[in-house]
Design a protein that fits this description.
The protein has 13 helices and twelve strands. It is α/β, with parallel strands linked by helices. Helices cover 38% and strands 14% of the residues. α4 runs parallel beside α5 (147-153), α9 (250-268) packs across α10 and α9 (250-268) packs across α11 (291-312). It has helices spanning 2-15, 21-28, 73-80, 123-130, 147-153, 187-197, 214-217, 222-239, 250-268, 277-288, 291-312, 343-348, 375-384, and strands at 42-46, 84-89, 101-102, 106-107, 136-141, 156-159, 179-184, 208-211, 243-244, 316-321, 352-356, 365-369. The strands form two sheets. The protein has a ten-stranded mixed β-sheet with strand order 2-1-5-7-6-11-12-10-8-9, with helices on both faces. α3 (73-80) links the parallel β1 and β2. The chain has two domains: 1-248 and 303-385, Amidase signature (AS) enzymes; 252-291, no CATH class.
């Protein structure tokens, strides 16, 4: 295992998925005190999740000297299962971004699409898995921050449903939308991590599915549309003809969710100093939102929540692309609608799984959104389609 950490150090030197591997490595290399189902598995940890004895930065430069005094409950669960940790994975500052190009800790590279973004904000988690440095990794997902990097790096990314795990020890961005996520190269590996951090069995029996509408596919690259069509054929063989998805203006809802994120970030970062100008501007915009406008945002997001949950019920899944195209090049502006297709799962608090398209170069991805408590069902369904 020491040899593997030496290899990880070389990978990190090339890809920079850790904030400071030289600092975190001694504790990361320590053997776990417990043996269990994750023994000898290396699980990466996004830098906004507290790992006792490590800097707990959340990508914020002024927190570099702030040491976590205790493990987050999800970290304690991983340790109990025998996991080794690869801590302090690179992320966007405060988890408020889409590039994993951090002004304080540097840019994370995409190991599967050189010269292009690993995605954000959990870019370091996706890159570590894609490079083979971690067997799986934890990230956080507020509007797609696990699934978008998973799509760009060609791995699986599961956003857990609201309330699936204890979020203590995870620095918040927008608590109404924040979720924990798990990334890995196979659904089975995600399942092993899920068994450690959110023990449970089964889930609802899926009996139907909803097909994406024309709006959801309108901005997608041809290869993404082809992948959705192929997945649609497989779902039809498994579950029969689809029902239409509910009428949801996905770009408008993404915009509303972004406003809510800016508003809730005001409280999340109230005690933080040394924030970049870019992050301060986002928070200032949230602070300036009127109560009336914020009420309207919450009302419209609530209506979308009810529409999607009502459409899926307890037995339906929604098929969508994860993102409209492959990763964007470094130095170019992230697509404005990058989270158009992912934010809806956060708005509804539902589990969602990004599924890489086998053999696609550069990586592209489709997505399944499921009913409450369907995390394991989505993993099983991914294996079948």
């Amino acid at each position: 295992m020491i040899d593997r950490f030496d290899r990880i150090a070389r990978l990190d030197a090339a890809l920079h998925f850790c904030e400071d591997f030289d600092t975190s490595a001694p504790r990361d290399r320590a053997r776990p005190t417990a043996a269990g189902p994750l023994s000898d598995k290396i699980i990466g940890v996004k830098a906004n999740i507290s790992v006792a004895g490590q800097s707990w930065t959340a990508g914020i430069g002024s927190r570099a000297d702030r040491t976590a005094q205790a493990d987050a409950p999800v970290i304690a669960a991983l340790r109990s299962a025998g996991a080794l940790l690869l801590s302090r994975l690179v992320m966007d500052e405060g988890a408020f971004g889409a590039t994993a190009d951090n002004p304080n800790f540097g840019r994370c590279e995409n190991p599967t699409y050189p010269g292009h973004s690993a995605g954000g904000s959990s870019g370091g988690s996706a890159a570590a898995v894609a490079a083979g440095a971690a067997d799986a990794a934890l990230g956080t997902d507020t509007m797609g921050s696990v699934r978008i990097p998973a799509a760009y790096c060609g791995v699986y990314g599961l956003k857990l449903g609201a309330g699936a795990v204890d979020m203590t020890g995870i620095m918040p961005l927008a608590p109404s939308l924040d979720s924990l996520g798990v990334l890995a190269s196979t659904p089975a590996m995600i399942g092993q991590v899920l068994d450690a951090i959110a023990p449970g069995e089964g889930g609802p029996e899926i009996a139907g599915w909803r097909a994406p509408d024309d709006q959801a596919l309108a901005q997608c690259a041809p290869e993404v549309c082809d992948a959705v069509e192929a997945a649609s054929r497989r779902l039809q063989r498994l579950l029969g003809p689809p029902d239409p998805m509910p009428e949801l203006d996905l770009p408008a809802l993404r915009s509303e969710a972004f406003l809510l994120t800016e508003a809730e970030a005001v409280a999340s970062f109230a005690l933080e100093t040394g924030l970049s100008d870019g992050l301060q501007k986002l928070i200032a915009y949230g602070r300036a939102l009127t109560a009336e406008r914020l009420h309207g945002v919450r009302s419209r997001l609530g209506a979308a929540n009810r529409a999607l949950i009502g459409s899926l019920g307890q037995t339906g899944v929604l098929l969508l692309p994860t993102v409209a195209a492959a990763a964007f090049a470094h130095g170019t502006r992230p697509p404005t609608g990058q989270a158009d297709l992912t934010a809806i799962a956060n708005i509804a608090g539902l589990p969602a799984l990004a599924i890489p398209v086998e053999g696609a170069t550069p990586p592209i991805s489709i997505q399944l959104v499921g009913p409450p408590n369907s995390e394991r069902v989505l993993l099983e369904l991914a294996e079948r389609i």
